[in-house]
Every structure is written in C-alpha cells, then in structure tokens.
Amino acid sequence: MPEPLDAALTEVRALLLDPALTRAVAAGRRRGQRPTVVRAELRPVTLKAGPRLQISTSDGARPYTRNVAPGAEAGAAVDALLAEPFGNWHVETADATLQLRVTKSGEAQVHRAAASRPAPEPGGHDRAKDWLLDPGDPLFAEIGGSAAKRRQVDAFLRALAATLPDDLTGPLRVVDLGCGNAYLTFAAYRFLTGRGLDVDLVGVDVREDQRRRNSELAGRLGWAERVRFVAGTIADAVVEPAPDLVLALHACDTATDEALARAVRWGARWVLAAPCCHHDLAAQLRSRPAPEPYDLLTRQGILRERFADVLTDALRAGLLRLHGYRAEVVEFVDSRHTPRNLLIRARLIGTAPTDAQRAEYRELVGQWGVTPRLATLLADPPSLTAPHQPASVGAPRPDSPTRRA
Length: 405
Description:
By secondary structure, the protein is α+β, with helices and mostly antiparallel strands. About 35% of the residues lie in helices and about 25% in strands. The strands form three sheets. The chain has a seven-stranded antiparallel β-sheet, with helices on one face. The chain has a seven-stranded mixed β-sheet with strand order 11-10-9-12-13-15-14, with helices on both faces.
C-alpha cells in the first residue's frame, strides 16, 4: 500500500545513520525529475581514523568516493542524498531490509523484511568480495537450493552485472525463460533491485504446478506485485509488455534456441543464456560423414558430442550477430561446479550484419551440412504472442531503461 513519501524517507534516513547499517543503494529517478548522480552506494568502513560512512556516487562518467565521520557530517551527507529525486532506495541493516520505490503519483511503495543473518563487520578497502548474494541471505531460507545451484546462480549474476551498464536507469522489464524452481528468477530480482533498479520480472515454465509454487513464494517474499509467473512453453508463453532483458539458465537442448529466438523477436536489449545439453546438432553430425579433412573430429563418439557443443554455440552466436546483436560465448562458472559452464551473452546494437559475417555463417553451416534449430526458428513467422519483429531491433522503446548522457 502506498505511503507518504516524506515519512518513508524519514525512515530511510534513520536506517542510513543507524550504526547497524550494512549497505544501501539509491538509483533510478522519479517521474519528470533527474538526480545529479545516477547512483549512490553507502556502507560502513573502518579506517585508521575510526569508523566512517563511505559514500560512493557516479555521475555516469566516473565514480566519486568519500568517507564521512559519524554525527553531523554524516547527517548532512545523508540529507543531501535524500533530497535527490532518486526513484529507488534499497537499505540493509543488521536487523532489517527496506526497499522503497517512488510511484508515478509521488508516493512511496515500501517493502520491509526482518534480517535473519548477522551483519558483517565493517570492512576496510581490502575486504574480499566473495558473493554478489551472500549464501546466508534471508532469500535462500525461502527459495532453498543446493550449494552448487547457489554458486551457479551467483556466477550468473556476476555475468549479468558485467553486462548491464553501471549508469542504467529507468524501469527494467526482465523475463526468465524456463525458470523451473525460480532460483535465478528470485536471485536476479533481489540483485537488480539491490542496485536500485525498478524491476518487473516474469518467470516462464511449462509446468502449472511450478507456476503455483513460485507464485506462492513471491507472495511470501512480498514481491507478488513485481515478480509473477506464467505457465507455458518458451516459444508461446504470453509475456507482455516485451522484456528488456532475457535470462535462460540451462534450458535443455533446443529450448535454449527457443529462448534466443524469443529474445530476438522481442528486440530485447540484453540476453544471457547458459545452454544445457546439445543433442540437436549432435544427431545431425551422426547422420552424415564429416567434411574432409575433419573426419577425426567426429569419428569418436565423445569427441563428436563435444564438437557438437562447440559448433552449436558458435552458430548461435553467429546468428545473433546477423540479427543486430554483439554476441560472445564466455565461461561463467568453473567447470568443477557444472560441466555446462558456458554462457551466451548478447547486447543489441542494431547494426546490420556485414557481407563477411553472412558469408562466414553460410560457409560454416554449408561445410558441415547442418541446420541449426535457431536458424529455423528465426526463419519461421513469429508467434502471435511475440510483440516485436526482428526488423524493428536497434531503437530502444520509449519506456526502456536508459543510460544517462
């Protein structure tokens, strides 16, 4: 329920000046207003001179960090930040977490939760940064997940953090395709809102029982208005409005192709997909002899399977480039945690492919005599539920998140 903004900011002020503060982030902007900095982060540090409140801000071009003494100096610095028209505040203390979002009508939508883990000791500048989301975060008490799954999700979030610009502002619409138990869905929402972004997130899974389970979890977390779930296939589930960011973690075989094709048709600005198994091209390679002189690559079954993995993801990245994306394939987590440790990371740049890129792709599929599933999906007419056509990529939507100039 909306609350008066002044009263909510007074509560935020008290938390920011509380000795139990562990971290706070301000970002985004209110309707029709623009703060002088795009982002501010506050945390306690211990210096030789004693405890200080560290305030790091960014104007979109360069960061600025200062350490202020407790008392009047910290109070004045906090008041100056609260006077800025930020759209979102995320504050964590040893006792509680508060998330504040300023609505279009100028009121405050506030979510409060009790902390269930001890706060870390204030750190110096050489403190290790082990996790983006601490394994002891109260979130995991609700969503569960093994240690290995949490490690994969944290590594995925690191790749996401490296993909999104630091000065990103505005509402961010996100979809997690093939979300399953929604470990990544909930962790991504926690992480992105922790950066001060105004996030709407949709999880898609084919199973209705998963939709009900995940929706109940969102309600228990107090996120039901911003995190919702739909039952349906990756190719056909209704997701409106179209997302800015598409995620897919270990969607099996050609389900990854369906996720990538959906992202292209939406004109999503960012895509992160970690493929799982690669059976489609492996079957095609088994059905025909390898071109000369590459018979040794596919003669042994294990080598053929691994080569199919590499060929599949190389062609996926190549197809994304042909559709206006800058795409790369990277390792997002160590192979000791999962053998499926590659990530396709793409950013929409909207430029037409070069003749050389087209020729490179044609020659590779022609030489191996394969038909990538992604190519077939992108050649087919788009689903009626897909709001965007590939031809429209490149121009950001009017209400898409922006980078400050």
